[in-house]
Design goal:
The complex is a heterodimer of chains A (255) and B (283). Chain A is an all-alpha fold. In chain A, 67% of the residues lie in helices and 0% in strands. In chain A, helix 5 packs parallel to helix 7. With 283 residues, chain B is mainly α. The chains are: A mainly alpha (255), B mainly alpha (283). The interface between A and B is large, with 50 and 51 residues.
Amino acid sequence: MKVFLKTMQMAYWGQTNEGHVYLIPRILVKLLYVIPLLFLWKIVVAQGANIELTLPQLLSYTYLQTLLTDLLVVQTEASSWNYEGKLIGFFTRPFGVLRQLIAQTMGTWGPMLLFFSLPMFFLAPVFGISMISQSPWFWLSLLLCVSLGFAIDFIFVCVTIHLRGMAWLGYVIRLSVAALFSGSVIPFQVMPVFLIRFFQIQPFGSLAGAPLSLFVGQGDPMFILGLQIFWNLLLWPIAVIWFRRSQEKMVAYGG
Amino acid sequence: MEVKRTGKRFFQLLWLYAKMDLSWLLRDTFFALLAMAADVVGTVSAISGIFLLSWRFGGIGGLNQNQVLFMLGYATVVSGLFQLFFTGNNTGHFSRRIGRGQVEHMWIQPLSLPMQLLTEGFLPFTASSNLFSGGLIFLIAINQLSLTITFLWVLRLLVSLLISLMTIVAISYLTSALAFYSPVQAEEISTYVLDSLRHLRNFPLNEMPKAIQFTLLSFIPAGLIAWFPAMDLLGQTTLGFTAGFPAICCVIFSLLAVYFTRKGLNYYVQRGSNRYLPHGHRR
């Protein structure tokens, strides 16, 4: 555990040791991203749309998504590090490669969580947005979401390895996952009705969409958690076994 | 060593990069097609959220669903042009080149820096999929809207596309200049900013508060990449600005990008980069 925490700390320092001022552009972009989206929901509701979610629920959903972006659709640097050769260094350390990747990724979440998410959490009432979870199952769902996010990411790494290090491919597909299939930008409940069930049950639907829905009090907790557990149980063994078998095929081009 | 800047050399280099791109497509067809398909999936997914939303509600923010599709099609064509000219060798993501300590590699070439950056990224075969898919979406929307297409309208469209493209490139280079000072932290800053613009540009801004419209048309010019030009081409007024507004903003962003890139380069010349380990891989 000590090694894990130390790796996290090093990753955190990697993000801030050139100064916290370099976080400002990311914070500004995040702010400027969430504000139009919040107004978009106000416009949708104002035009009399008949949807399952109320305006306060939509606002809480989007606001929380912005605060927890990194956790809701986990993205490690493994695909690009494999391509660049940086991943090789991980094999020289007395610590499991996947565990290093998890610690490293969690460490990089730190600065934005501390300097963006935390202040914004406390500022939410100023904007009239509730940050109180409507379901006690939210935290468990978030944990399962992060866990599943890592499993899916490692599977993408394996795909990348078998595609001779085509990190671009994984990056593009993950962008589409984040944009549409995870429910992180637009809640499944406001999608065309015939697509809602499909979006909910596919594996990416157990990422952002699951905890965010529970947070705003939407959906059946047992169904959502059951699906998340199912995908975790299915995808983690695949990720671990496939990664172990894929290691021999790694090809690095160098920086 | 002579630094060649002629127009002839520019087109020779574009031809050279086009041949290299075609040879990759022919030599490694499966992987090249896979990359092209992924590009299409990524771009279509990026615009699908807003489109599905407008489909369900019969329009959104004062635009009907075909007008939303028109705007999203325009945005995808702009993305396609960016990929066509600025994907190769990360020329559209200059912060990566800076952050990875690769700028000095460019100084040993017998070509000026702008000439390299304007030609190295050209991938007319493997990076054209978004341009085609965006063009198709755009044509479907034009057909659905029954727009009257005149020569002047096409000319306006081409100029708008060029301005939108130049605005994206200017924003990318402007933010990339941070990587001169913070190579590790800002290596991916252009990716981050462009990804955010990619999401932001899809919002129909018609009924947004004036302050948001103004912000997204000035400091964070996501509205200039798709919404403003699309509304202009559809003949709708936008905040009372004239059609020349995007061009003025584009010039301002370009000048700022040139100024800060030059300033950053001077800093880089003095400090260099320490990103490489002795065995060649990056820190």
